[in-house]
Amino acid sequence: MGEKHFTPAPLVNERYDEDLAMMRIRQRVMYDGRLEFVLKGLPDTKKTGRLDRHVLKSIKIHKDPAPLIHRLDNIIKREHFNPFLAIYRQAVGTTQNRDISQGRVTMQNQQLQTTFGLMNIRIYQPQRDYPGQLLPVVLYLHGGGFIGSTFNTIINTCRAIADKFQAVVVTFEYSLAPEKKFPAALRDSLAMVDWVYDQASRFYADPEKLAIMGDSSGASIAATTTIFDIEQGKRRIKQQLLLYPITNLSADKPEEIAWSWDKYDIKANKDPIHFVLKTFGMGMHYISQLYAGDYNRKDPLISPIFIDAKTASLMPATMLVTAEYDFLRIECEAYAQKIASQNVPVTLFRYRGLDHGFVDKVGYFSQSEDVLNEMAVRFRQRF
After folding, report:
1. Distance, CA of 124 to CA of 230 (rounded, Å)
2. β-sheet bridge partners, residue 106
3. Could you give the domains of the chain?
4. Distance between terminal CA atoms of the chain?
5. Going by DSSP bridges, is the β-strand pair 27-32/239-243 parallel, antiparallel, or unpaired?
6. Based on the number of CB atoms within 10 Å of its own CB, is 5 exposed (0-12), middle (13-18) or buried (19 or more)?
7. Residue 37, beta-bridge partner list
8. Alpha/beta hydrolase fold-3 domain spans which residues (predicted)?
9. DSSP strand E in the chain: where?
10. Tens digits of per-residue pLDDT, 24-63?
11. Is the pTM of the predicted complex or chain greater than 0.90?
12. Are 66 and 278 in contact (CB under 8 A)?
């Protein structure tokens, strides 16, 4: 990238309501056994193979990122220091979004003392039909590549989820790598499942209607939390809702998740699409090292794509969201197929023209609100 780099532009969407209405029309729903596949088009055109206009506007493309990655590798080898971490932490969690709950959600901060230290917790309460009404509860894990961000970046996302799902949403700040590598974040998540399940009545939630949700690395930890809960024979998690999860941190790429340019429909915007995909893919190399360390990266508690058929068959009802030009799309969709093949109900959403992390832009990208609307309908039906 040299002296030039990726720069997000200010977000403005003057056609937000019109775009949101079009998202309900521009879709195709297909079924394959227990898999429901919802393919969403662009809100302003029937054309395919191109970026959403807002994504395109936000990306400033100049050079192939490979030379920068090469320089980073040389620094790491020479100085035993990874500058990627500092660069990433400065950039992550700066996405613009806005509150679309119209004041219908309250927020309360708490702290939980665990065996491993003090944990910050935030609880979102939607309006109820009557005082004391027990609602489902969603445990939400923020993204950030396992190494950055905080639960402050998802405040408006969680407000929207609480409002649309009619559920209590609980978030928390889990341990970040490399200061605290795997399994620290998973351990924190399991502690939160214990706490939410045991204490749900204190915040008027039904522990038997517990769902886990997350975005990106948070979705990965959510998936591995579900796996561990199954392996322990508890099965307390009744739904998992995964927004573009990282499902494979290993170098092993089985055929169903083998990455290839041929799997992406690119008719326009070739340079920015290539830049986005290459940059993300190269970043995954460092994220894997920083998070997993010397652990076996094919362990399903690190890379959930490697779950066995028995564990997959015990999964709860699942919703999984992908973006067309997300580097992770291929492995995410393979994970959805793997679970559905074991007779588990799975809904898979793919949004055309978008890249990784689009739900973070709630209130600006119509697709962000649209996918929460779609998930909310299915969430309530399943509970």
Report:
1. 27
2. 125
3. 16-382 (3.40.50.1820)
4. 48
5. unpaired
6. middle
7. 30, 348
8. 138-359
9. 27-32, 35-40, 105-114, 117-126, 135-141, 168-172, 205-215, 239-243, 317-323, 346-351
10. 999 999 999 999 999 999 999 999 999 999 999 988 765 6
11. yes
12. yes
